[in-house]
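Module 6 notes. Inverse folding takes a fixed backbone as the condition and produces residue identities as the prediction. Think of it as a translation problem where the source language is geometry and the target language is the twenty amino acids. Below is one complete input and output pair. Work through it position by position during the lab.
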């Protein structure tokens, strides 16, 4: 929790604000802010959200999981394969089963999804 405290202190000091003023803004107390910054206590999730909102940073940044204030950007890559039941269900929902082009459209969509994941 030392890293968390260091990050919280750095955020506060980056805008030259006192612990008591920050406590007033966040709805906390100066002594609590001091304990958080010194690693003697852990803020609640609700208070950490207030920090993130006030300083316009991500929770990843607050928890020192990354050094970019906007956080670490993740790119979801869904598993695209012919035997993935979730993908099959999604593709089935996309097209009218009564259409004569149904199978061809489903196969085309799967090929397109496979191509986008590989790109």
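Target side of the pair, the amino acids:
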């Amino acid at each position: 929790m030392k890293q968390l405290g260091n990050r919280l202190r750095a955020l506060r000091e980056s805008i030259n604000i006192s612990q008591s003023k920050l406590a007033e803004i966040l709805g906390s107390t100066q002594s609590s802010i001091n304990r958080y910054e010194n690693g003697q206590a852990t803020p609640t999730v609700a208070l950490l959200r207030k920090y993130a909102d006030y300083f316009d940073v991500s929770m990843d940044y607050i928890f020192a999981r990354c050094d970019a204030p906007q956080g670490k950007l993740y790119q979801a890559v869904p598993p695209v394969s012919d035997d993935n039941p979730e993908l099959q269900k999604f593709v089935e929902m996309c097209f009218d089963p009564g259409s004569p082009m149904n199978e061809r459209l489903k196969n085309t969509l799967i090929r397109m999804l496979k191509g986008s994941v590989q790109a």
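Reference fact for the lab report: The mean pLDDT is 85.
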